[in-house]
Amino acid sequence: MALQPVPLEKFYRLLNHGPTVMVSAKHGGVENVMSAAWSCVLDFYPNPKVTLVLDKAAYTRSLVEGSGYFALQVPFANQAATVIAMGQSRKDNPNKLADNGIELFYQSDADIPLVKGCSAYILCKLIPEPHNQQTHDLFIGQVIAAYADDRVFRNGHWEFDEVGDELKNLHYVAGGQFYITGKGVNVKSDMPF
Amino acid sequence: MALQPVPLEKFYRLLNHGPTVMVSAKHGGVENVMSAAWSCVLDFYPNPKVTLVLDKAAYTRSLVEGSGYFALQVPFANQAATVIAMGQSRKDNPNKLADNGIELFYQSDADIPLVKGCSAYILCKLIPEPHNQQTHDLFIGQVIAAYADDRVFRNGHWEFDEVGDELKNLHYVAGGQFYITGKGVNVKSDMPF
């Protein structure tokens, strides 16, 4: 495998199918990762944006607010236990990354920690919106870079039909229950999105 | 099949796995339906909310702004061609509902049109947020009711592993290409969401 840059024109395809993500951020030398089911594309290039819901109880929220940056990573199905483990708060276990064998890395010159072994990464700069953050726990990010694992995403397309279930994505429901991404279906279309 | 009410405590499970939705609304006697890949849960009960992105070019946007109500419906995989057809704007084809055999119905006493034959329905009252709507094309809805088809959603749980592919959900990528919902995976968890 190799991580390849994804043009910002195509970043939305990394999230469009509604995968569960893990959110990462760093501030004051502290790195953290949390799972999130509630993240979504907000706009296309030339204004690529995402939304992300961060509860006031989430430790990662303070890192996002402090640094003004975060990343979304799209885990593989074989990371389901990691996604559940990252649903635990760092407030309850300050060693949750080490205890769960999470390895972080940094890509290009962005100071945003990324979790090794995911299918795709979307790096974002927070667009401060104090009303949304306070009233709705809603954060908006400007996408500044994106990467994907070329085993599953090539030339702007997911290739899930060519890989085993372990390399598909996760779609969280509740109570530790996910669905993995299923079969591809193509309907001829000139839809703009 | 029978459409059953979904308690508002459980409505988020209808969207958590990231399905593509169709948005419906009515104003001034005009009903419309459009497809949308960008909708997401924003909060749990007792404050159940969703986000929805509606481009300024979308006809349905004017109906949502005018009436203050909309519904999200989660189509079955066998409705993929309908989802693509509803991606066409009513501005380009004022007869798009009739031309595509869309049948609408109304549930309980809400004056929001719903598309027959979908797996789940989330009825929403717009929470006006002029800045979000103008700057980000972002709409926030308070969930007022939810329903699901009991062939696939029972007692608060999707039962996709028990049905054929045609009764799974759709996850849109781009260019007429979807993935359908795949196999269930369960990781023991005490995650709060």
UniProtKB/TrEMBL annotation, chains A, B:
The keyword Flavoprotein applies. It comes from the Bacteria. Its cofactor is FMN. SMART domains: Flavin_Reduct (SM00903). This is Flavin reductase. It comes from Eikenella longinqua. Belongs to the flavoredoxin family. Residues 13-155 form the Flavin reductase like domain. One of its GO terms (molecular function) is FMN binding. Keywords: Flavoprotein. The lineage of its organism: Bacteria, Pseudomonadati, Pseudomonadota, Betaproteobacteria, Neisseriales.
